Amino acid sequence: MLRKLLIGFGCVEIVRPQPVIDMCERIGLENPDEAQLRPQALLGARLEGLIFVWLLVRGRTGSTVVSTLLGLAGIALVLLPQPIIELSQRLVYENTDELELKPWIEPAARALGGLYLLVVVLSKRSDEPDGAASAKSATSSESA
Known about the structure:
By secondary structure, the chain is mainly α. It has one domain (2-125). It contains 7 helices and no strands. The longest helix has 20 residues, at 105-124.
């Protein structure tokens, strides 16, 4: 169920990234109306959604490079949120010096890191154990 919810979120982020960005700005900024997005910000949000969907749909056969990078980003956000927050602000906004961060931005960044790690873990887990999937395919081929 959680996997399907995250796939749905990723699809929304691919198709309509602006509402997701707006929500994140309301969560993290004291003055979200003053935020000036860089042109590549929407592309970055879509890429994040695409990575979620790719890993969660492909599962174990997904890209280990992509899951490793997402996992490393998750670990960095959980352990060292402040440098990542500063870097992401500079990449996403043209006027970072004018933006005022809310006091709970670090816990929110850690939660995002946890979400990244959750996506990686869920992508590694199969819906069926390997033995059950093999047994099911062997049984169906025998009955044919």
